[in-house]
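pasting for the record
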Amino acid sequence: MVIVFTPILLLYALIMAPAWFHNHLLDGLADRILSHPLPPGSDFGDYERQGVVMPGGGHKDTCGYRVRFDLHTYRSAEEVLKHYQAAKIEPVEGNRPFEINVWTLSRSQPSPLEDGGRQRIIVEIQDNGHDGGGWDVRCW
């Protein structure tokens, strides 16, 4: 029985190794981003952070990493954007600047007066264009 399943398990490990490697890089980036001090007057929101490996920069065989999370803050979206643009967070590799997007969902959130003057802001940080997509189909 072991002789039958060993080649199948080895093939599975060979196929999944690139995905596991990119998941490891994504987790490290997410840890560095989320451990960076929050803007003053901010707390993490109610939603769990999201991280994804994706095609990076529109070129074949490059990977990108995106981390998205929400904040409850007294700050404006522009102030939160400037806070993360000035952050010294180490990218996955190289010295490329992050692509940072910040937005609010004004229709779906209570008015600032109902929430003590705080608003929900979504922060999305992308680290794109890394070579080595290889056999990870998420990078194609």
